[in-house]
Give the backbone structure.
Amino acid sequence: MKIHELRIGVACVLGLLAACGSDTQTSTVSTSTARGTLVENPPFRIASFSAAALAAQLNASATGKQLLQVTGAPVCGVDFHYMHYWTVGAKGEAESASGALMVPTGPACSGGRPILLYAHGEEFDSNANIADVTDPNNTEGGLIAAMYAAQGYIVVAPNYLGYDTSSSPYHPYLNADAQSKDMIDALAAARAALGKVLAASTTDNGKLFITGISEGGHVAMATHRAMQAAGSAVTASAPMSGPYALAAFGDAIFLGNVNLGAPLFAPLLTTSYQKAYGNIYAATSDVFEAAYAPTIEGLLPSTTPLNQLIAAGKLPQLQLFHNTVWATGMAPLDGLLDVPPATSAINALYDLGFGPANLIKDAYRLAYVQDALANPDGALVPKLQNLPPVPPPVPPVPAAAPTNTLRQAFKLNDLRNWTPQAPVLMCGGSNDPVVFFPVNTGVMQLYWTFVAPPVSPALVTVLDVDSQPSGATDPFAAAKVGFGLYLQGVAAAAGGGAAGQNAVVQAYHVAVSPFCAAAARGFFSQFL
């Protein structure tokens, strides 16, 4: 089962069906810039299709039939609306944003319905619009439409600030406060539209589910935390493959565990935190090598494809750090800074992050690591082979007083500072090379286990889809088996051996998405 093909396939199907309906309503245009205000109410309907039409189109192709095995047959038709609304940036400034409102339709899907608030994963294309299901590149929009909207959930999915028509000049990447406000404001805007859209009989029944993948996993958890703190009802959440323990994750990377895609995430992070806090650097050359520093701030997201940016020398493809042989005079420190010995498959992956075309300066990395040693994170003993070596019952909390400003920003946006009062499913894959499962999902689980007072085990469920079913009653058996079969197919298609293993590494992070989404929907179903 080829997940990339499935996701693209459903987006193409929805594109074919877009002609089945368009907006014929007149909208009221608001001049208010208050948070959560819709610019046009009702928002424009860009596509509409019935459950029968969607099912027929999916069954007409091999990839569509495979998708139905994951999502199930459509129960509802779906109207797609393109929202413009107002939110705030990292400093509280008014910003416009856009997103999707997917409204289920049909006899079985009108009346009160639950809302699914969705946070998408990293996007490097600043034109990305999750509402535009006519775009075959919008695979995530197609997946959540088939997985949730066509099964009776009202779906609300913001594009985030910095994307599509947003007025923000940058994306507040992994800024927990700004991104959770964006999510909450998108939800308010969508709720204001319900009852005024063409499918006016589909309404909010008061049940709210929150989910998202990768960056969106962090956003989903931050949103649950923010809504709980504000006294707003959350029925359940399912953050997926997210960097929740962000401070520990940052330390793990700087200590040599370079995740796949690190040079692409670094510009998003530093720009986000520099714009929000103003203290990450005095000049970009404080952090980045001269080849990249002049154009790095705000480079991503971009209208220029990543491969062109890399070819133009704006970014390295893989190399975050220089392959320096360190001689600081302190052998333990040198051992932490040197390229990890390629004695295992995971260290071989880390090795790809080192080389002569590196993005981050040696001096900046050294200062970061020295602070990590002087002010250690409770989740990490600074040894490459131990991720994370947390001896219970000590809560794995962030460093108390980091001095490095990037570590301070990581701590500020780390999610180890709350305990859920509604059920949470954390789903991911244990061998994820992009967002390390042990350092994020594992650490978050440990934090909730050993923080005082501990979170009830009944509230937190952890799912590793890259594991064997625990038995005949395992509620997530299908997701685990399906993910395992998919990885086998990826390896076989690449010819097996080293080529197959490399193909699995490249596909792994994205491949988790549909299986975790299916598991999340099953998890949510018990609270409907």
Remarks:
- The chain has two domains: 3-245+415-525, 246-412.
